[in-house]
Design a protein that fits this description.
The structure holds two protein chains of two kinds. Chain A is mainly α. Chain A has a single domain (about 1-225), classed as MetI-like (MetI-like fold). Helices cover about 80% and strands about 0% of the residues of chain A. The radius of gyration of chain A is 21 Å and the shape is globular. Chain B is mainly alpha-helical. Chain B has one domain: MetI-like fold (Orthogonal Bundle). Chain B is about 85% helix and about 0% strand. Chain B has ten helices and no strands. The longest helix of chain B has about 40 residues, at about 5-45. Chain B starts with a helix and ends with a helix. The relative contact order of chain B is 0.15. The chains are: A mainly alpha, B mainly alpha. The interface of A and B includes residues 60, 80, 174, 202 and 213 of A.
């Protein structure tokens, strides 16, 4: 137990901060994922063949390639890509991207592919009559989407989005390979310096279990909120 | 685009893909038995066995696969007692540790898939078997299991693809699988995009094959 003490003697505070880091990365990645979903869901639902192809390529490639490979691509290629863009604007210094940004972006791209599929499924399962009724009521396109379609989509999407959240949360453990100090990386450091890997990795497992358990509780509340009236 | 590098790395990556497939098939076969075992426990009326199986699937589905591999590879070697038993022969090899971790992980997901498949079998089918005078054991093995396997095919296909992606984590415990070799080439040449295209292409090809194989099986064993 003294291994987990707070302060200089134990790893308690380090692991606590690492847990907060995991939560921060997961939330950032999930939000970046929503951003990607916002772009790619309309593309996948569009009638234009080219748009369709772009949307399908994104979800197929990302869901068919291991997360670790995507992370390596961004980890080794990320700063090169940013430097290339910067050089167009005449900035030629070396740019190093922060591990947090690389990591959240990598997990965000992955999470976005799953979110896109969830939103696509949810929008497609809304009754056609709803779209037609919204149009007949003379609502603006904006109101049609935000007042009629989106609330219904959310209700249908939340159970599946909770799965995406769980995947995202667990995927953040993979960014430890880039050196970002989250739960996995901190456990690795602690295990290395105390020579007690069994304890620290088991403790990491407990931390992840706690996170998944707590997020399930919160998601269940959200689900109840959005299914009012059903 | 460095086409020469892509052409040069292709055979190396293809060789590594064989290791990925070996890891995948070994863990799927063991995982299927683990999954079936725990699915049967979940259907058991004994509360203790039931909770045990639920706890197993909860823990393995609620923690990242990376943690599970690290516990088995780095953690178990720490127990002195284990080092003196024959198990050590297996546990000191990263290859077998990875397979154990993958098998236990996919076993947890498979048990959930099979459990829900068993539960969707209409009671009328079991009753029909009983009224024909077939023993409970034969009803289970000859009627319930085949139906459950057919029911769970689509979900199990997804699980196979997820597991194939999961095998990439073997590269974190020094195994040179497809991702391991890809990372090695990236870190020596600093050409991530080229390597990603080749390695990703191989992964996508394998996904494509698995996807179509499952589709074929689904069609072959469909009820209509």
């Amino acid at each position: 137990m003294e291994l987990l003490a707070f302060g200089k003697t134990g790893w308690g505070d380090e692991l606590f901060i690492a847990t907060l880091m995991t939560i921060a990365v997961s939330i950032t990645a999930m939000l970046i994922g929503f951003l990607f979903a916002l772009i790619f869901t309309p593309l996948k639902l569009s009638k234009n063949k080219l748009c369709n192809l772009i949307g399908n390529t994104y979800t197929t490639v990302i869901r068919g390639v291991p997360e670790l490979l995507v992370i390596y691509l961004l980890f080794f290629g990320g700063s090169g890509a940013v430097m290339f863009v910067a050089s167009i604007f005449g900035y030629n210094e070396y740019i190093e991207i922060n591990a947090f940004i690389t990591g959240s972006f990598a997990i965000g791209i992955i999470s976005g592919a799953y979110s896109t599929e969830v939103f696509r499924g949810a929008i497609q399962s809304i009754d056609k009559g709803q779209f037609e009724a919204a149009k007949v009521m003379g609502l603006s396109k904006f109101a049609q989407f935000y007042k009629i379609i989106l609330p219904q989509t959310l209700r249908l999407a939340i159970p599946n989005l909770s799965n995406v959240w769980q995947i995202t949360l667990k995927d953040t453990s993979l960014i430890s390979v880039t050196g970002l100090v989250e739960i996995m990386r901190q456990s690795y450091i602690a295990a290395g310096s105390t020579r007690d890997p069994l304890f620290f990795y088991s403790f990491a497992a407990v931390l992840y279990l706690m996170l998944t358990f707590l997020s399930m509780k919160i998601i269940n509340k959200l689900e109840a909120k959005y299914s009012r009236g059903y | 685009m460095d086409l020469e590098l892509m052409a040069n790395s292709f055979p190396k990556l293809l060789n590594a893909a064989v290791i990925t497939l070996k890891l995948l098939s070994a863990s799927l076969i063991i995982g299927l038995f683990v999954g079936l075992f725990f699915a049967i426990l979940r259907l058991n009326k004994n509360i203790f066995l039931n909770k045990f199986a639920y706890g197993y699937s909860y823990v393995f589905r609620g923690t990242p696969l990376l943690v599970q591999i690290f516990i088995i590879y780095f953690g178990l070697g720490q127990i002195e007692y284990l080092r003196s038993t024959f198990l050590w022969v297996i546990l000191k090899e990263p290859y077998w540790c990875a397979i154990i971790a993958f098998a236990l992980n996919t076993g947890a997901y498979t048990s959930e898939i099979l459990r829900s498949a068993f539960q969707t079998i209409k009671p009328g089918i079991v009753e029909a078997g009983k009224s024909l005078g077939i023993s409970n054991k034969i009803i289970f093995y000859k009627i319930q299991i085949p139906i459950a396997i057919r029911q769970s095919l689509p979900a199990y296909g997804n699980e196979i693809i997820l597991m194939m992606k999961g095998t990439s984590l073997a590269s974190t415990v020094t195994i040179m699988d497809l991702t391991g070799v890809a990372k090695y080439i990236i870190s020596t040449t600093f050409k991530p995009i080229e390597v990603f295209i080749v390695a990703g292409g191989i992964y996508l090809f394998m996904t494509f094959i698995i996807h179509n194989l499952i589709k074929f099986l689904e069609k072959k064993y469909s009820f209509n």
